[in-house]
Specification:
By secondary structure, the protein is α+β, with helices and mostly antiparallel strands. It has a 3-stranded antiparallel beta sheet, with no helix packed on it. The protein has a two-stranded antiparallel sheet with strand order 4-5. Strand 1 and strand 2 form a beta hairpin. The longest helix is centred in the middle third of the chain and has 24 residues. The radius of gyration is 18 Å and the shape is elongated.
Length: about 130
């Protein structure tokens, strides 16, 4: 189980995210009334998917002792105007002296990172009011 804490006071809309001993600042851009002090929530979502993808690829390549030197993951998120559908695109660059078969396998593995899987399976979000 993962647990984080998110706090927002009267500052519009600078949010302090605490995850263990780490702190991340999330905010909205100036155009949305924020102060642009940190990534917005959608950017943080993409950062989660991208970093999970890169880490999963690194772990797999290391376990196989493949010559994967570097990984670059660029992500975009596009939504229908009514937000009824969302498309996240991952553009992945793999650097290293890899065979075509190794590259194909790594691209299969890229879609198996845990965060990717969470977002592509049914998710239930439950909100509870705490006193």
């Amino acid at each position: 189980m993962y647990t984080i804490s998110v706090a927002l006071d009267r500052a519009h809309y600078e949010t302090r995210v605490t995850a263990g001993s780490h702190t991340i600042i999330a905010d909205e851009p100036l155009s949305a009334g924020g102060k642009n002090q940190g990534a917005d929530p959608f950017e943080l979502l993409l950062a989660s998917v991208g970093s999970c993808t890169a880490i999963t690829l690194r772990m797999y390549a290391d376990r196989k002792a493949w010559p994967l030197e570097a990984i670059q993951v660029n992500l975009t998120l596009a939504q229908e105007k009514d937000r009824s559908a969302t498309l996240i695109t991952k553009q992945i660059t793999l650097e290293g002296d890899l065979t075509d078969e190794q590259r194909r396998r790594l691209m299969q593995i890229a879609d198996k990172c845990p965060t990717h899987l969470v977002l592509t399976r049914p998710v239930t979000i439950q909100s509870e009011l705490m006193e």
